[in-house]
């Protein structure tokens, strides 16, 4: 049984990239546990009380509730649009939550963990937190957000946090609940400096949960963090012993690194106070920047998740943010990086493998894929695939989604390279039909396994793969293919549509474009969109650029050019050159060519082995760096990026283009 939560997002502003990142991780984990057959409950929602919300509402001429309703609805609408598979959407303004918090406050008070006193400290409205003078940055700046704090002295109720210092440290040691593990020591160091009792009520504003009536003290409201954290309990109807109570405690609380302290120190202490079990894992991720800069409205470089998903596709968006950054680290969003992953991984590795398999199965076996002889011919490859999948599962359990996806795509690369290595069309020509069909079955089983494990990340794309191969993405097949390592047969479709489409140019505006538009708006009250530069086909180091503007040519002129598909058999850097790679290319009938290309800044030599490229083969030989080059490899230039031109499906070496 798995209970997963996102943070209860604060409604001071609309959802941003960080919110989407957390929620997509949580959704991925929930889908994964359901695939395993685990009973799973995913909670998300909004935190709606506090002075910051009250002030924001007044600025807009709203009541606090109306403001909270509006922003909370935007979060819910985005998660619905993104297909987030949450089971509960919780709000701290819900009546059941308010009643639960008041009941818990009473229990803590009666135990002696809450007492009345007076608090003096520097309060940050933005963070809803108090700080001592020594904690401040500069004179009065908040150490967390940098905004100016206010010195407050007021009557307050306190929670005896100091009472739980040793118990929290023992929990860290015995249960190792913090992910990533390197965050644990930061918390240990903080707790060891000494935990001071925590102010848990405020006066001076009204937007919050009132104290229990039994205390007869109506000038206080409950501090936002005591209020917010118990949403994880109240939403399960824990006080009234509802059906969802059985899910508590959480298997995983997902949070941003800025609120780890509240979840990993205050929350366990609160739970210890009322005698409730502690969560198994609390996991904190980093922040996102854009092209190396912090996102801010003043810079005009804030990424809106909906706009990004609409531009590149929701599934590509999900894949990129989970693949790009090690969990726990800060991440930098770059469109170039996103385009590269879409083209090289989603299109070339995943989409291309599906197209190859469907095409070969239709051609060689009337779309029937029989796996009975896979072990006979390809036992080594099966063992290698099994290792990749095992590694992937280990990484996912510790939320290293980037490594999880990396291992899955190693399995896809194995399938693609096996096709290049064994050349099923060649096996057919030599009469080795059983081996050719076994190769197709090997790759189909690899793709099916990857589709199962990739489905929590790319649910719609993997559903298409399963439909095209003729199997189901369900718990039974997870147990058969992943846990049981069983080989299955397939009845594939005769043809399929591409899973992903290559992206040839950035689809979002750059920082410079945004800043330029902002300047124009400030001076002329209207924006200007920069002209887009279309990618060109470029030839490197060999003195010709096919995209140069020139006079129109006749078809007879074009017929003078011979472009063929070649398979890369060997690739290495040219000593003394930062730009050049030396290729050994295979054309028809085993013919090999040595060709130089200036793409060393964009590709690692080893990654190109067994890839197919387009080559101009009737070009006069040239010497570059004293090394002979017999041909020209074609590539496309888009901005600062160089991308090799390759066929969408594997073809026989030496095939002619034209």
Structure description:
41% of the residues lie in helices and 19% in strands. It is built from 20 helices and 28 strands. The longest helix is centred in the middle third of the chain and has 31 residues, at 335-365. The radius of gyration is 30 Å and the shape is elongated. It starts with a strand and ends with a strand. Mean pLDDT is 89; it is low at 525-550.
Estimate what percentage of residues fall within beta strands. Answer: 15-25%
- Measured between the Cα atoms of the first and last residue, the distance is 58 Å
Question: Helical content, roughly?
Answer: 40-55%
The oligomeric state of the chains shown is single chain
Separate helix tally: 20
- The computed structural class is alpha+beta
Cα radius of gyration in angstroms: 30 Å
* Beta strands, count: 28
List unreliable stretches of 5+ residues.
525-550
Largest sheet: 6 strands, parallel
Q: What overall geometry do the principal axes of the alpha carbons give?
A: elongated
User: Mean pLDDT across all residues, rounded?
Assistant: 89
Please give the order of strands in the largest beta sheet. Answer: 3-2-1-11-12-7
List keywords for this structure.
658 residues, alpha+beta, six-stranded antiparallel sheet
Layout of secondary structure:
Blueprint (H helix, E strand, L loop, with lengths): L1 E9 L6 H19 L4 E8 L3 H9 L4 H18 L6 E4 L3 H17 L2 E11 L4 E3 L18 E10 L5 H11 L2 E2 L2 H11 L5 E2 L1 E2 L18 E2 L1 H6 L1 H4 L17 E5 L3 H14 L7 E5 L2 E3 L2 E2 L10 H8 L1 H11 L6 E3 L1 H31 L2 E2 L4 H24 L3 H22 L1 H6 L3 H22 L4 H11 L5 H9 L6 E2 L19 H14 L11 E3 L16 H4 L4 E11 L7 E6 L5 E6 L14 E5 L5 E3 L2 E3 L2 E2 L1 E4 L2 E4 L11 E2 L1
Parallel strand pairs: 1-2, 1-11, 2-3, 7-12, 11-12, 13-15
Antiparallel strand pairs: 4-5, 4-6, 6-8, 9-10, 13-14, 16-17, 18-26, 19-20, 19-22, 19-28, 20-21, 22-25, 23-24, 26-27
């Amino acid at each position: 049984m798995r209970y997963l939560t996102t943070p209860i997002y604060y409604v001071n502003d609309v959802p941003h990239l960080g919110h989407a990142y957390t929620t997509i991780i949580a959704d991925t984990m929930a889908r994964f546990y359901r695939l395993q057959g685990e009973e799973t409950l995913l909670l998300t929602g909004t935190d709606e009380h506090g002075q910051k919300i009250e002030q924001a509402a007044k600025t807009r001429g709203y009541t606090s509730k109306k403001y909270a309703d509006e922003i909370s609805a935007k979060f819910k609408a985005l998660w619905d649009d993104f297909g987030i598979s949450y089971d509960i959407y919780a709000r701290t303004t819900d009546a059941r939550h308010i009643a639960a918090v008041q009941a818990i406050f009473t229990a803590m008070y009666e135990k002696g963990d809450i007492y009345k006193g007076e608090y003096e400290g520097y309060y940050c409205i933005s963070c809803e937190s108090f700080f001592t003078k020594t904690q401040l940055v500069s004179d009065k700046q908040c150490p967390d957000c940098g905004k100016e704090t206010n010195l407050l002295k007021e009557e307050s109720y306190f929670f005896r946090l100091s009472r739980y210092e040793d118990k929290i440290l023992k929990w860290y040691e015995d249960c190792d609940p913090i992910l990533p593990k390197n965050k644990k020591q930061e918390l240990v160091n903080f707790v060891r400096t000494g935990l001071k009792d925590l102010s848990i009520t405020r006066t001076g504003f009204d937007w919050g949960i009132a104290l229990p009536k039994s205390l007869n003290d109506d000038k206080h409201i409950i501090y936002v963090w005591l209020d917010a954290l118990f949403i994880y309990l109240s939403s399960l109807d824990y006080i009234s012993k509802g059906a969802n109570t059985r899910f508590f405690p959480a298997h995983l609380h997902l949070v941003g690194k800025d609120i780890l302290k509240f979840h990993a120190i205050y929350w366990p202490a609160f739970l210890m106070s009322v005698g409730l079990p502690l969560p198994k894992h609390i996991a904190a991720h980093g922040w996102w920047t854009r092209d190396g800069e912090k996102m801010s409205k003043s810079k005009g470089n804030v990424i809106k998740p909906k706009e990004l998903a609409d531009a590149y596709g929701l599934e590509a968006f999900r894949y990129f943010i989970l693949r790009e950054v090690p969990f726990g680290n800060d991440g930098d969003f770059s469109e170039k990086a996103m385009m590269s992953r879409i083209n090289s991984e989603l299109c070339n590795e995943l989409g291309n493998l599906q197209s190859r398999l469907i095409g070969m199965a239709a051609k060689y076996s009337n779309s029937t894929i029989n796996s009975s002889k896979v072990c006979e011919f390809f036992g080594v490859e099966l063992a290698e695939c099994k290792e990749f999948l095992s590694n992937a599962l280990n990484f996912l359990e510790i939320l290293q989604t980037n490594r999880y996806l990396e291992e899955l795509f190693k399995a896809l690369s194995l399938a693609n390279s096996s096709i290049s290595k064994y050349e099923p069309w060649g096996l057919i020509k030599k009469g080795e039909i059983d081996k050719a069909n076994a190769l197709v079955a090997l790759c189909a089983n690899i793709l099916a396994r990857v589709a199962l494990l990739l489905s929590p990340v790319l649910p719609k794309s993997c559903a298409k793969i399963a439909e095209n191969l003729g199997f189901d993405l369900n718990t039974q097949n997870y147990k058969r293919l992943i846990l049981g390592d069983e080989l299955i047969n397939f009845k594939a479709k005769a043809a399929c549509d591409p899973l992903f489409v290559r992206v040839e140019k950035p689809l979002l505006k750059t920082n410079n474009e945004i800043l330029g538009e902002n300047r124009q708006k400030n001076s002329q009250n209207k924006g200007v969109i920069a002209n887009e530069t279309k990618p060109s086909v470029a030839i490197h180091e060999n003195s010709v650029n096919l995209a140069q503007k020139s006079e129109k040519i006749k078809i007879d002129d074009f017929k003078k050019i011979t472009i063929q598909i070649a398979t890369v058999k060997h690739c290495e850097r040219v000593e003394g050159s930062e730009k050049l790679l030396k290729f050994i290319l295979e054309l028809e009938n085993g013919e090999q060519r040595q060709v130089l290309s200036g793409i060393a800044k964009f590709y690692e030599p080893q990654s190109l082995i067994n890839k197919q490229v387009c080559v101009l083969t009737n070009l006069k030989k040239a010497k570059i760096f004293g090394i002979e080059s017999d041909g020209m490899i074609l590539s496309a230039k888009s901005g600062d990026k160089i991308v090799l031109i390759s066929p969408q499906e594997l073809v026989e070496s030496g095939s002619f283009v034209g």
